[in-house]
């Protein structure tokens, strides 16, 4: 019996969708996790603890496991497992990306080098060590610029600076993120560097695709209708199909395909982020995995096939009836966290779910937990999903549902005694939006500057 090895950390959002897809296909799944599973002993052929941080060790574990439990495909649910998946697939003789190509995609500096060498539009960039003096560096930077860690995802640690004072404040803030123990353990030597890039203006889009023997099949393009101009780059709304002209979409396809060739990615799902302006399409990020969070729930193919089922069929060499996305427009809002604190309550969910076109609102942080907005945090408050006849209607449904939600947040340690005291303490500024997205631009540090 051949199995699918699904690599995922305990913090992933993606487990349920992939496991559901495997169940529909009748494919046995081995869950490869970074921590031993509680019930692993009861199902030794279905669970495997592997070392994600040292992929060479993880690969040896997988190869030994496969001697008793044959594996037909290895797939990573998130960024954390993509290098291990590539190395393990190579060791097992399965279709795979080269580990060097995956590593290049995970290292933003190496990615920029390869794109520049291939002549693909890329912003000017440089890498600096975290122990350098930011005030000295700031005097030799072109503004506006963007500072970012080399390997973190989800806009964590990505900050725009428009002048030397903002640069120094942003640099200090990124360094603080990289020196957190969990980040340093995950990033390894990449945590010792910061990437500085020229800011690329323009509309931002996301491309979802599958690669077979180096050939890209684009599954969809998501528009991101909210401007992502900084100082932080918190994503909110994704809507498909794209409203860009076909000529612009063709430029996006071509740029993405060229970037994949430059990096050497040959097989499996890809998720790319691009900016489009009068000078063409620019790769911002490219990842050898599918779209993150719960956003894949917006995508249906053929007669209702999920993105995860499409990916599994591709990985297992099974027939795919259709790669065509459904006729209806679809979208998701990643509900932003308005400010730091302890989540106490979210009101208005029932009213928001009654908005025409809204299919579901999924809150992913329970009351009582700490909220950490970007650029320091990695989580969203939840997700709003909508479908409609046109992208415009979908976007309007998402915004109206978002407007109905009211989030109550208290400072850490400030526990209200009843609902009345909670409401009176938090009504001011509690709404997530007022009919349109509000950009939260807090000071980068004490003494840092604000941009309105």
Describe this structure in words.
With 452 residues, this protein is α+β, with helices and mostly antiparallel strands. The protein folds into four domains: 3-97, Rossmann fold (3-Layer(aba) Sandwich); 124-198, Dna Ligase, domain 1 (2-Layer Sandwich), CATH 3.30.1490; 202-324, ATP-grasp fold, B domain (D-amino Acid Aminotransferase, Chain A, domain 1, 2-Layer Sandwich); 330-426, D-amino Acid Aminotransferase, Chain A, domain 1, CATH 3.30.470. It is 30% helix and 26% strand. The protein is built from 13 helices and 21 strands. It has helices spanning 15-25, 55-68, 82-92, 99-106, 108-117, 134-138, 164-178, 181-187, 246-263, 307-316, 349-353, 391-404, 419-426, and strands at 3-7, 29-33, 47-49, 71-76, 125-129, 145-149, 159-161, 193-198, 203-212, 215-224, 237-240, 268-277, 280-287, 300-301, 305-306, 329-335, 341-347, 358-363, 370-371, 382-388, 406-410. The strands form six sheets. The chain has a four-stranded parallel β-sheet with strand order 3-2-1-4, with helices on both faces. Strand 14 and strand 15 (305-306) form a beta hairpin. Helix 1 (15-25) crosses helix 10 and helix 2 (55-68) crosses helix 3. The longest helix has 18 residues, at 246-263. The radius of gyration is 22 Å and the shape is globular.
